[in-house]
Design brief:
Elements: H1 2-18, E1 23-24, H2 25-31, H3 33-49, H4 54-82, E2 88-91, E3 97-100, H5 115-127, H6 134-146, H7 173-182, E4 186-190, E5 199-211, E6 214-221, E7 226-231, E8 235-241, H8 256-263, E9 270-277, H9 282-287, E10 290-295, E11 298-305, H10 309-314, E12 320-324, H11 326-341
Helix pairs in contact: 1-4, 3-4, 5-6
Amino acid sequence: MAIAKAERLMNLALCLLGTRRPLSKRELRESIEAYVEASGRDRGAASGRDRGAASGSEKSGVAASDDSFNRMFERDKDDLRELGLVIETVESLDGEVGYLARRDSNRLPPITLDAEEAAALGLAAKVWQQARLAGAASGALQKLRAAGLPEDVDPYEAHGALEPRIPVHEAAFEPLMLACRDRRPVVFDYRKANAAQPGTRHVEPWALECWRGHWYLAGFDRDRGAERVFRLSRITGRVRSRGSGFTAPVPDVVTVRETVASWAGESADRSARIRLRADAGYPLRAKATAVRELGDGWDELDIPYGHGLDAWLVEFGPDVVVLEPAELRADVLDRLRAVAGG
């Protein structure tokens, strides 16, 4: 069905771009094979339903066919305009409405890139070489070369000792990226850090963002009725699409990074006291506001305490002991018990 619609849209676009005068609905209906076939099927189906009333069957079949074509044509026209095609509506002297897409109105302006702009595009393309978007990035650069990218600029040339990469290993990345683009709700199984078994989530996806080497999805959790952020590596199984539309408005700016940072304890407003083995936990030491040597291979640290610190401390296993506050110690113990039981 998707291929048939794409072919129908392509044929309609070619007709509108190839004509020198406005074409009426009737002319487009007779020129595009998909419209002819659809009209024939609709007329036959309507006639079959009205076979018991022979006198009105033909008129009913024609009317049903006309209505079906009008709806299909309007949808196709809207889809082409949404894709960027400029379609003009022209009314003739006798009142007949016609449509055309002038080539000069649908031609991109000349693309000119200087060396710095070309280098930036090349760098962006190299970032995605390990992801599923590598083919699209490479194809885009080839089109830009054909459109006038300076010949003396190599967009793939290394421009520094460090070369950025955005690795994408999670199978959920591509279906979620497409769902964000198409505004399609999704369903997936998600395992929280402190849960032994995954739970089902119904989400309206907004945006994806990479933060500290991990991919996160921001969206509206229908079951909880609020915005949530999900780490892709904790999504288990297949991401399934749902046909219904979004029920919550999408924010103008989806701040995935800020939300993730707050959930990861980056916006800490309190202090926690922990014991840490002397030869371990260097990331914790880097965040510490005070370090005291206790002897016997242990140190005592004061570190900023925000949401998500318990999940981070669990990663250090037996090298960390939480002293205070009591709620942080309880959260860490709950997570360790969940891991031990899972």
